[in-house]
Amino acid sequence: MHARFAKMRSMLFSMLLFLLAIGVILGGAAVFTNGVEWMGRRLGISDGAIGSILAGVATALPETLIPVIAIFFGDSKAEADIGTGAILGAPLMLSTLTIPLMAGFLLLLARMRKRADHFTLDYHAVRLDLNFFLPAYAVAFLVAFMPIPALRYAAAAGLFLMYLWYVKIHLASGEVSETELEPLYFARKVGHPATALVTAQAITGLGMLIGGAHLFVHAVGDVASGMGVSPLILSLLVAPIATELPEKMNSLLWIYQKKDTLAVGNITGAMVFQGTFPVSVGLLGTAWNLDQASLISVTLPIVATVFLLALIHTTGKWQPRMLVLPAFLYAGYIVYLFVH
After folding, report:
1. Would you call 176 helix, strand, or coil by DSSP?
2. Domain range 2-339, CATH architecture
3. pTM greater than the 0.85 cutoff
């Protein structure tokens, strides 16, 4: 009885650490992103670069730092599995859950007569994002079948260069963000905060992200051990929902405001980053020997992306009702994990 009580107490403590880690990560992301945006203004970078590149990468840091910390600073296979799960989980969630949620929210608003029941999009930009993500993630899938070091390293370098190419094309497009920056968190009542404060806030946010990622890795390992669940599976499902989905709630707000291009670009742009840089981390830091569940988690975003591109090529637009369909891939995967 005493042993069972001690185990339950340990499990409860691990769960509290887990929730604390998520809170620290999300708080750090908000602090860092806000600081980076202001730093971009200080450096004279365009609004488009701040919003799409600096802020986009900054908000992806939680999902990126978790595998970096787990893979390069961990000392066990369980921690490496946590890192791999975090890498694979984000593209899966974005393509098969977040996009359907966005489409479903649009349909709900249309039923409530808050807006039209169709997207108003820059489909050229959407195709650009998806056409970058698809070959990048296909590389991650193919290398898993022959993960020899030389091939992994070459693929990692190629994916990193591909993202730099994507950034160059995006910056050259001349797109400018019309959104205004929120006040600096460290100086909310100051219209033009000092550069030292901006730098201090960015460094503080980065420290919170790193500390939260460390705590998350250890907490997930403890929770998985207590529940008898694979650390890879737990991190694959939990890490992206905890760190990515709250940020992507911005897309729902933009859908409500009828800013469809911003809403969709927020998701497809994140897919490009998540399909390149974090995957490079996995290719460099692990053997990339993916099991069946992991291979399926890579396959589903590829299938969803092919479907999304096919809709544009065949009909010239996205129909919200059709965009709900990839959610069945996510639901089916959840069922598969529980069954197997």
Report:
1. coil
2. Up-down Bundle (1.20)
3. no
Q: Give the pair of three-digit tokens for residue 24.
A: 């620290």
Is the Cα torsion angle 48, 197, 242, 289 positive or negative in sign?
positive
Q: What would the two tokens of residue 137 be?
A: 């993630």
Q: What single letter denotes the amino acid at residue 166?
A: Y
- Which DSSP symbol is given to 112? T
Q: Where are the alpha helices (DSSP H) in the chain?
A: 2-42, 47-49, 55-72, 77-93, 99-111, 123-143, 149-172, 195-227, 231-243, 245-256, 260-274, 277-285, 292-315, 320-323, 327-339
CA 48 – CA 231 distance, rounded (Å): 38
- Compute the C-alpha angle 50/53/58, nearest 5°: 90
Tell me how far apart the alpha carbons of residues 107 and 100 are, in angstroms, rounded to a whole number: 11
Query: What pLDDT, in 10s, does the model give residues 102-136?
Result: 999 999 998 998 888 888 888 888 898 899 999 99
The C-alpha atoms of residue 196 and residue 16 are separated, in whole angstroms, by 35
Q: How far apart are CA 221 and CA 301, in angstroms?
A: 26
Confirm if 267 and 94 have CB atoms less than 8 A apart: yes
Cβ pair 127, 309 in contact under 8 A:
yes
CA 299, chain centre distance (Å): 17
Query: Do 216 and 22 contact (CB within 8 A), yes or no?
Result: yes
Contact 201, 35 (CB under 8 A): yes
| The one-letter amino acid at 307 | F
pLDDT in tens, 82-108: 778 888 888 998 899 989 999 999 999
Q: Measuring CA to CA, how many Å separate 10 from each of 13, 219, 227, 228?
A: 5, 11, 11, 14
Structural domain spans, the chain: 2-339
